[in-house]
Amino acid sequence: MKQFNDFLTLGIETSCDETGIGIFSENKGLIAHHLYSQIEMHKIYGGVVPELASRDHIKRVVGLIQQSLNQVNLKLSDINGIAYTAGPGLAGALLVGSSIARSLAWGLDIPALAIHHMEGHLLAPFLEDKKPKFPFLSLLVSGGHSMLIKVQKFGKYEILGESVDDAVGEAFDKTAKILGLGYPGGVVLEQLAKKGDKSKFEFPRPMAKKAGLNFSFSGLKTYAKNTFYDNPNNKADVACAFQEAALDSLVIKCKKALKQTGLKTLVIAGGVSANQRLRKKCQNLDVELFFPRLEFCTDNGAMIAYAGHQRLIKGQKDDTLEINIKPKWNLESLTKV
Ligand code: KG4
Ligand code: ZN
After folding, report:
1. Closest residue (by CA) to atom 10 of ligand 1?
2. Radius of gyration of the CA atoms of the chain, in A
3. Which residue among 73, 146, 195, 255 has the highest number of C-beta atoms inside a 10 angstrom radius?
4. What is the pTM for the complete model shown?
């Protein structure tokens, strides 16, 4: 049945190895979401194979949209706008989401809007009942990014610091691979670290004494590798020492950024925000803290539906029929809402 007096946004996420769909209603909030993870398929290769990722998104996306609509007894014709991840991410994978989104929008004669994947992550905590208030500091930590952002308002982002080399999630994944923990490594490394002895090894806290708010994680990964090769029987202790150092360096820079900006609210999002040890360490910060629920820390369609919805209801839309993607896309270039 047509949902009068409501605005329904369909969100489509296909930037990497997860096909995610969400439906956000102006009246009821998030009403449906479905996710298909390709982890099992990529596992045997030890990482994401881009071509396989694109092909799998093609296989899943239509079925997942249908499943999400069915969940709430809606038809495609009930949807008022479509938001899709246009970047950053893998070009082939992004093309799947943008093609289906733009084609559906054209066929249904409704607006479509390209969404920045990291804006989706940043806004994921707004899917919870208790929402952060602007302005706030955001720590965005995923497999592709580690950024500290001053969020003045929705759409106005100032990057205060970022990683000069590997993203923190990438360093977790690479270290996990070195330790023979498989892919994706972040969550497995966290589990193993729980069994480690914190006092066994003390790793350096990269960039801690350097001015500025940038991070660096690739040296830490090498430090873990060398320590493991010299101490092959101390796998859990190495995992623990790596995790402590990586997370401390995030917390150190958060503290610095909070002091520098005077902000009193900290929003942490992206895949690494699922890490329980990070959540624990942040409890000591003198701020109001916000995290997404665990399933919305990693990639999902709900966050894209939410971010897109906020823009679509204000009348923003892409004024082109072209199917274009932005595998590299600066968060600071986004428009305000
Ligand atoms: O946000 P996300 O799903 O994808 C990107 O946008 O990159 O983040 C995935 C990253 C991976 O590097 C994964 O290992 C890491 O988040 N991750 C974790 C944990 N869960 C996921 N890292 C540390 N601890 C975790 N519990
Ligand atoms: Zn992500």
Report:
1. 143
2. 20
3. 146
4. 0.97
Residue 2 Cα to ligand 2 midpoint, Å, equals 33
- CB half-sphere exposure, 18, CA atoms < 13 A: 23
User: What DSSP designation does 62 have?
Assistant: H
Ligand 2 centroid–CA 123 distance in Å is: 12
For the chain, give every domain's residue range: 8-123+297-333, 132-291
Distance CA 38, CA 48 (A): 9
pLDDT in tens, 199-221: 999 999 999 999 999 999 999 99
Report the alpha-carbon distance of residue 235 to residue 92 in Å, rounded.
Answer: 36
Superfamily (CATH H level) for 132-291: ATPase, nucleotide binding domain (3.30.420.40)
Judged against a pLDDT cut of 50, whether residue 136 lies above it is answered with yes
How far apart are the CA of 143 and the centre of ligand 2, in A?
7
CATH number of 8-123+297-333: 3.30.420.40
CA of 233 to the centre of ligand 2 (A): 33
- Ligand 1 atom at minimal distance to the Cα of residue 297: 1
> Rounded CA gap, 245 and 171, in Å?
12
Pick from 139, 166, 178, 187 the residue to mutate for probing ligand 1's pocket: most ligand atoms within 8 Å of its CB: 187
Torsion 144-146-150-151 (CA) sign:
positive
pLDDT digits (tens, 9 = 90+) for 276-314: 999 999 998 999 999 999 999 999 999 999 999 999 999
